[in-house]
Design brief:
- The chain has ten helices and nine strands.
- By secondary structure, it is of the alpha+beta class.
- The protein has a three-stranded mixed sheet. Strands 1-2 form a two-stranded antiparallel ribbon.
- Strand 1 and strand 2 form a beta hairpin.
- Helix 1 runs parallel beside helix 3.
């Protein structure tokens, strides 16, 4: 049996196992239709299923090279059709924590890169801020409006390109219905409205805020889920399943295998965000290499 054939069989086993099925294909290698679990044949210790007995008979008559070609085609199709587990949204309490998380790369005072070992974190006016050193906290406290405005400007610049909604989170109308949209930062999260009145209407009411944040997180998740670069939890490295949690931090979807890992992530998201960023960069490089672009 060839190495290539072994790899094809292993690919089918991996695909089926990842969605919780036995080590057999879910689509017929002859027609692409759904298989019947009781119409199978043994192929080097692995069951291959078919949609009907006729397809099984035709497959058995093929040469080994043609069988390999059929399995190769099937493995590619199953890989393309495989969809990530949808998971469940993070709890509102945990999303509030994430909305306050500071994930900008630099200190707002010195503009120096954040060193996680030397950094100092403070929660000021319900917003987390990470400073490069303790003396920078005193500089911030000397002029909070100046540095809060600087942080807001950087957050808007960072999160605006991937912002997923074109409608106001309060009125539901297009965000530019009154001209220039209102970019409002809640904690450290960008929220967009058609006017300043709508921003205050939402952010000063806990129920409206919860609904707006849920709507925004759902939009980010729908936008990024299909291209999410990891099939494992960014914290535990365990496979993602139907109990996985979809959290959004700074406009980025983060998938965690369980609520426990969600809490662990929330306590210190910065190293896990770096891990996710590296995985995304690697996935894009692999795609570029395959397409030759």
């Amino acid at each position: 049996m060839s190495i290539r054939h072994n790899l094809l069989i292993l690919a089918l086993i991996a695909l089926c196992s990842s969605v919780g099925l036995a080590a057999v294909n879910t689509q017929c290698p002859m027609t692409g239709r759904d298989v019947k679990p009781n119409v199978t044949m043994d192929m080097h210790g692995t069951e291959i299923a078919f949609c009907c007995g006729g397809c099984r008979a035709r497959f058995q008559k093929l040469s080994h090279s043609d069988q390999h070609a059929k399995l190769d085609e099937l493995a590619k199709k199953m890989a393309e059709d495989k969809k990530p587990e949808p998971g469940q949204p993070a709890s509102f309490v945990e999303e509030l924590v994430l909305s306050r998380a500071y994930i900008l790369p630099n200190c707002p005072i010195s503009d120096k890169p954040i060193d996680t070992e030397k950094a100092v974190t403070q929660v000021i006016d319900d917003r987390e801020i990470v400073f490069c050193c303790a003396p920078c906290i005193k500089k911030f406290q000397a002029d909070p409006p100046k540095y809060n405005a600087k942080i807001n400007e950087q957050i808007i610049k960072q999160q605006l390109p991937a912002y997923p909604l074109q409608n106001c989170l309060a009125s539901g109308r297009p965000i530019d219905v009154k001209g220039t949209p209102t970019n409002s930062v809640y904690g450290n999260q960008l929220m967009r409205f058609c006017c300043g009145g709508c921003a205050a209407f939402v952010q000063k009411d806990p129920v409206r805020l919860k609904n707006a944040m849920s709507k925004l997180d759902e939009a980010y998740t729908a936008q990024q889920l299909a291209k999410y670069p990891l099939e494992t939890c960014v914290v535990s490295s365990e496979p993602l399943g139907d109990k996985s949690v979809n959290a959004v931090i700074g406009g980025t979807l983060v998938r965690l295998c369980c609520a426990h890992c969600e809490k662990k992530f929330n306590r210190n998201p910065r190293p896990y965000m770096a891990k996710l960023k590296a995985a995304d960069k690697s996935a894009k490089a692999d795609k570029s290499a395959k397409t030759g672009s």
